[in-house]
Structures
1.
Amino acid sequence: MKTLKTQVAIIGAGPSGLLLGQLLHNAGIETLILERQTPGYVQGRIRAGVLEQGMVDLLRQAGVSQRMDAEGLVHDGFELALNGQLKHIDLKALTGGKTVMIYGQTEVTRDLMAARKAAGAITLYEASNVQPHALKSEQPWLTFDYEGETFRLDCDYIAGCDGFHGVARQTIPADALKIFERVYPFGWLGILADTPPIHDELVYAKHERGFALCSMRSATRSRYYLQVPAEEPIEDWSDQRFWDELKTRLPQDLAAQLVTGPSIEKSIAPLRSFVVEPMQYGRLFLLGDAAHIVPPTGAKGLNLAASDVSTLFNILLKVYREGRVDLLEKYSAICLRRIWKAERFSWWMTSMLHHFPEADGFSQRIAQSELEYFVDSEAGRKTIAENYVGLPCEAIE
Ligand code: APR
Ligand code: PHB
């Protein structure tokens, strides 16, 4: 078996793995990324599109912000559509100047892949059977298959950035983990279209037929979502049916502005809340979707991945530069404090805005009234805004 060596072995070349790799590389800490899929597959996934200020700053720190700064759209607010009317959430005014950046995860991934390539750092794509070993020892290692051969990779630390279905979390003994989960009885049907967005800000719409979201990727590319039942067959949704249903769920004045066109991507994603505790086992650390999932209603998934990356990066920096190994044991608790707040916000936005078919009339009226209260009160709008732009990250000291 051929043996390789690195300082931090990273499993998964999604946004978590690539961003951690870039920050560590820039700091002179060597990484090697093992990715199961091809670059084309990783690149082709259409996912989120709203970046918190903290993530924008981290991408700038990593030196990969050039295209984002040129092409990303800064949004000062968003709209909630309720009872046929738009209610503005002025993020900037309500948070003392904070905003969000509209820039697709696809583009973030592309920029990170290009930066890693330019830096000459190694990603082994189509690496299979990745298996971490000796996690509780000071010399953990991995085995994997690549181009028909089996390799051993020795390292100091392993970063599990391999998403919800990855191997890292599954390697940890089940009795060492506690899982918290909620599955929602609906999914999001999303389409991407080369049409101008319906509005200059995002619109989150509550409607008795179900939730709808109007988002965008650029001035010429729109992203729309509809709440659909959990097991909905995608074949049942022609483009025409999608556009008709979207119009029904939006306030009339807004629906009249909708420009339709052929979809260039269409998919259904289930909605789930999931957290694993702790996010560390010996020298293995879990980051991003490997450790937690949020329903997309709060636009938090990608941003949480970035805050885990920031936390682990700052800890490893102090470990390598100052010998602060005491910090390693704090990783999970620091991450989880922020994650649970984002889980709460994502659950709340989901609960307020979606139609829960099984909820009784009383529960539906309470949700309606809770949302109206939040939207019509300055304190309520402030609470929504400060969560939406992202709560602060803890300093690593
Ligand atoms: N071996 C190697 N690579 C693996 C393995 C494995 N056993 N299992 C999964 N992977 C790879 C996947 O192919 C994928 O490229 O790990 C990567 C995980 O990427 P993501 O699922 O994108 O997870 P993450 O990087 O944490 O991104 C955070 O935020 O907006 C959300 O869900 C959205 O993907 C987004 C996430
Ligand atoms: C998206 O543009 O894909 C998007 C935006 C906001 C969300 C979720 C998804 O809350």
2.
Amino acid sequence: VPTGRAVRASSRAEVEAAFDELGAPHVVKADGLAAGKGVIVTSDREAALAHADAYLPSGPVLVEEFLDGPEVSLFFLSDGDHVLPLSPAQDYKRLRDGDEGPNTGGMGAYSPLPWLDGRFGSEQEFVELVTGEIAEPVIRQLDAEGAPFIGLLYAGLILTDAGVKVIEFNARFGDPETQVVLPRLVDPLSELLLAAASGHLEDHTRPAFADDVAVTVVLASEGYPAVPVTGRPLTGLREAEAVEGVHLAHAATAESDGGLVATGGRVLNVVGVGTTFVEARDRVYRAIGEIGLEGGRHRTDIALRVAEGL
Ligand code: GLY
């Protein structure tokens, strides 16, 4: 399975040697779960070393090759033996427009990715490639190791000049990509999940997706991601949902005094479906304009480039 070159380093000297071998930007990862704070990507060698120093006392760290290129998420359903791909999506991880600011849990997403056509011929050819080179070998290997994977395999991919490479796997749906993949899914999701859970994906045809496009924009609380301000009232949700092609996916809301309040950092997703990205974006941003949340923030450039045909 194609991925970045990686060195497991147990000492500062090994980390430095790996930096020399792999070059900048440096990627240092804690070799284990680290509450989302385990990775640093930087050209600042001292900062990269400091990150390694923080984790080395508790075990080796991974120094990885930097993978340069657009990031794509592709989900697969698996029954442990067979896989069925869903449709690719792209998310926006940084807080502010222009991919500025800190990393977040995701500030927006869109699907499909028409620019894949220029690189791979078509979305279908891209999906075939990733299915054959990445998803199927992983599922086969897990099965061979006596750990069949039944569920949703999330492949995080970087489209490098040297080919499609895996940057991460997750054993769950991606957020907020799922908010733009599922509205386009024609087949009932429940049937697909049941087929995966009961070992019958082989009998199922490839999931079909509408030609419609979907865009989602996340509304976040003031202070997110550092220290989100919670408890503030939300207004205009009914008006937002009245915009054609729009629905809301709530993430951190709760009822209070007959209304709704924000209870966390990423509060809700405004999802817009349309026949073009211009239309879907127009719907999403009209809807988000209806919503009131003191100090609330959202990105204004979700799917902008793809809407401009870039
Ligand atoms: N969109 C990134 C994730 O779900 O991890």
